[in-house]
Amino acid sequence: MIDFKINKDKCTQCGICSQECPTLIIDGKKGIPEIKEGKEKNCIKCQHCLAVCPTAALSIWGKDPDDSIPVNGEIPNSKSLERLMKTRRSIRKFKKEELSKKLVLALLETAAYAPTGHNKNQVLLSVTEDREGLAKVRSLVYDAIKKAKDANTLPPAMAMFGNFQNLWNEKGIDVLFRDAPHFIIASAPKAIASSMADCVISLSYFELLANTHGIGTLWNGFLKTVFDHIAPELKEAMGIPEDHAIGYMVIFGKPAVKFARSVQSEGLHVNKITL
User: Fold this and answer.
1) 109-160, pLDDT tens digit by residue?
2) Residue 134 has what DSSP assignment?
3) How many whole angstroms separate alpha carbon 111 and alpha carbon 226?
4) Domain span at residue 165?
5) Considering only CA atoms, which of 195, 170, 203, 212 is closest in space to residue 246?
6) What is the pTM of this model?
7) Is the residue at 264 inside a domain?
8) Is residue 132 in a domain?
9) Rounded distance, CA 34 to CA 28, Å?
């Protein structure tokens, strides 16, 4: 049951909820909105009806509209958001200090608001909360690379990972984790058609908010290669379900370097569609 309820004292019978419903299961033509007979199963839990109701008269899935964040509060203006996006840089040198668990949780909770295909909301965010947890992951990763190298199972194109392992083992130089204090993996069920996109969008939400807190991030393709191709058994060790695919992963923490200005992008490629 989707637990669709209308507060009749608040409802103005404007019909906006039925017009906005993406699966058209709300009937607003009879006055007080109601779910069309036999259509409950078509609800995708998007909560659009709850979010669009101007008088907070509608509840669904047990959600109280008064617990939602109002839209009429302060939001970043276009210039400040543009500046954030243009000046954001990949960070490869981090301070040793950890972020508070409260802050990390707040970042994760915001990432959970990211849009997902068919509103599946099944992205799993696996995170290390402290340097000790990251150190354990690091050991597992470098040990797995050494195992593959010793067994001569490293593909020729990935031979450099053996060099990374040597640098860590012999000199303590951490090419993969950059001595960051935290690490996050976004994964989602393989059966979802948009699983990869869902993960990347969630991490993009995470990263943008992290940057407003002065937190540096690095999208880590090296680590994804290790998990996907060199040591896929690491996924189970991280507690990631077997039916999940890893979308991407990010290391993050307080940056040890401060950039003074943006780069000057030469990466714009536009195709103006003229049919």
Assistant:
1) 999 999 999 888 999 999 999 999 999 999 999 999 999 999 999 989 999 9
2) H
3) 24
4) 79-253
5) 195
6) 0.92
7) no
8) yes
9) 7
